[in-house]
Amino acid sequence: MKHTLWRPPTDLQPWVSQATAVSFEAGSGPHGNHFPALAGSMLTVVLEGRLHLHTTRDPVPRPLPSAVVTGPSTAPMESTFTGRLRCVSVLLYPAATAALLCDGAASVTDRAVAAAEVFGASWVACEDAMRSASDDRHSLLWLFGFLRRRLCSDAALDSTRQRQRMQRALSRPVPEAAGLVGLGERQFERVFSHHFGMTPKLFQRMARLEAALLDALVNRTPGAELALRHGYYDQAHLARDCRLLAGAPLTRLMDAPGSPGSVHWPLEIGAGHARGQAVPLG
Fold first, then answer.
1. What is the per-residue pLDDT across 107-143, written as a single tens digit (0 to 9) for each?
2. Which of 21, 37, 126, 282 has a CB 3.0–4.6 Å from the CB of 245, allowing a cystine?
């Protein structure tokens, strides 16, 4: 597997967390990629090959469209492919999904939807240009151009900042978070669930595990210290969330990304971005 980590353009950084190009050469298969539960969303364009999606809700593998919006996922997801695969993708911050869709993230939670279905004719022209591009870098330039037209407006930035404020408030317990943004607790839960595609408490749980996993991968922090640092009751509490939200024990998740053939290689992509290994498009 080869990958390049790209730094999002400055004007898109309020929305885009990371951009990545990945390729696998033809060989024996099938291969897999296992993603933990994600509070953000992804836009992925498969330039060569075909992905099949597996989820806990839909265990029978089904072929994915060549360009797909994967919404927030409240459980681990896995996709498989055989032969050569080449794709580019962007990961959006949780607060950015609603701006991209012009709708709440609840409409795509635990779903993978064809980009053409979400965005219409404007997307079809962008995808055609991406496929005609000379390399991954130029494909991403087309993709960033599409996102720029979709996101870079005062209205989109204002609405995203409001959702970011709700997200930041969740550093406190939910009743306090609601008060910080001037809403009642029940109203806060309804509004948050619409915009982010999950309840505030589930979001807090997923965000905590994401931070703990990045800490484990980047700093090699051991389990007991990791649990204490990220607010878990104990190591068993952390282990339970790892199994339920990431699909494997912590020790396997820490060791697997660098192992040949591991389905957990997407964790190394996230860790690479966290280490600052992404390069500018230039």
1. 999 999 999 999 999 999 999 999 999 999 999 999 9
2. 37
| Contact criterion met (CB below 8 Å) for 261 and 1 | no
Which residue(s) pair with 24 in the sheet?
85
Full 3-state SS string of the chain: CEEEEECCCHHHCCCEEEEEEEEECCCCCCEEEEECCECCEEEEEEEECCCEEEECCCCCCEECCCEEEECCECCCEEEEECCCEEEEEEEECHHHHHHHHCCCHHHCCCCEEEHHHHHCHHHHHHHHHHHHCCCHHHHHHHHHHHHHHHHCCHHHHHHHHHHHHHHHHCCCCHHHHHHHCCCCHHHHHHHHHHHHCCCHHHHHHHHHHHHHHHHHHHHCCCHHHHHHHCCCCCHHHHHHHHHHHHCCCHHHHHHHHHCCCCCCHHHHHHHHHHCCCCECCC
pTM of structure: 0.92
Structure tokens given for 63: 């072929």
